[in-house]
Design brief:
With 540 residues, the protein is mainly α. 60% of the residues lie in helices and 6% in strands. It is globular and about 70 Å long.
Amino acid sequence: MCQGCTEIDARLEAVTNAAAPLPSRLPRVRDPAPARWMAQQVETLLRNVRSGQGALDVTIGEGLDALNVGRRAMDLSYSNIGDFAREELGINASTATKMARLARRLRDRPLLREAVRRGQVTARKAEIVAPVAVGDHQLRWILRAKAETVRSLKVAVKAPADSDEEEWVNFCADVSPEKLPALDEGLRLAGVIIGATATKNQRINAWGQEYLSSHPAPPDDRADDVLFGSEEEVEALKERLEQENRQWADLAKVDPLQAPQSSEEIDPWRIAAELKEHVEKRDRWDEVFGHLAMLFKQSRAWELLGFASFGHYCEERLGMAERTVMQRVALERSLYRIPFLRRALREKRISYEKARIIARHAEGEEVQGWIEKAETMTCLALRRAMQDKDEAQMCARGTFTAWMPVSVAEVVKAAFRAARAAAKRWLSAGECLVALAEHFIETWKAKLKQANTLQRRVRARDRHFCQVPGCSRAAVHAHHIIPRSQGGSDDPENLISLCAAHHLFGIHGGRMRVTGTAPDKLIWEFGLRRSYVAAAARGA
């Protein structure tokens, strides 16, 4: 076992034993001195846990980057590492992609890479300074990253905002039952135009952008349904607190942990096996992190330590986006509320990603049923099934809801003002939304009249998604299950929708095979190239 692994295991045992007796909320103390002392103790434990997670994240990122080389991910049946990470490791696809991207950048920055591997510079700070920490400038930026805050580094580098740091809001509107079909058709058409994999908020954003292109929005702030604080005011508060609260430097020190050494394997199956070992360790850290993060958040301990907000604390002390931490806190609350969900997680019946999906969409007695279904489903299929359930329930209630980032919410707000101006009267949020959808349909439906070809009918049957289990890509090809050269027909039962990568490099590349009849009686075989290589090696 490598030295890094030994240190990580020892630290995990220590923090687990220290965190185990802690309740779900810190006791209320009138005296600020002991209250701050308690907050510091929890904060020290939380950062110790984050240091262990961070060390493993570095190695996991390097392994994911190694899978990105050539067709290694495809050898494992996945068209990209995001799908592999979600389905095989239980890591969110966008998180995995970001981890691999940082590992790839650090390959050309050996000094910065070593500082990150030793835990001297957090991954978040490395992401910020990587564009400028090149060549002889690496050492200078490493020293700055060690001494300065995330906020000051972003200002110095003029770094663009991280999409994970953007605030999200929940839009909800009452819509009359007779108007719901217009919203469904608007979402369908937007998917045809911007792609089948487009999210609900991206499709609504397309409605808003299209409406604003022909209906200017009046500057009427009173028509806004959602108000947002000034970002400049928040940044000014953060800067002032950094100057006033020098006690940040005096908070209990956390010794950095070195990332486990990567084996630099080139065989994709061995890389996958190593990644699963690292993720198993990371999951043990994550269980402790969830408990401590929930305790820290519910107790508002960040206020006692002098931070502007919980998000400010997450960014500066944990090197994580507030949204990422809040998702973990929300899951932890669900695990306390639904004990058998935690039990299924500990028994490895479901991954963290599946637990997060179930916790977000299911309640009460239905959770047990979804856990049983999740055991035999991919994460992607589980998410789509639960989203379909939510959509059906919302339609029954006559409501329309969607989570969206603030940038999309601002477009929707402006489009609502334009819709009210065009109607020359006040419209409810639901009426505004219908106006946007109907305008989008009117603008695009005539232009999207398409030939009713067999391939289009097959893709529509498959909801325009690649049908390889776990693939998140849109379908662009129709594949004959039994090739026409072998007597296969053009009947829909013999055709299946695939993305280009799986069709060309998966099926025709000899990495996988599909038999049976579409759409519900398909049999998939993966890892065929591995069998071929092994057989060739034995023959040699």
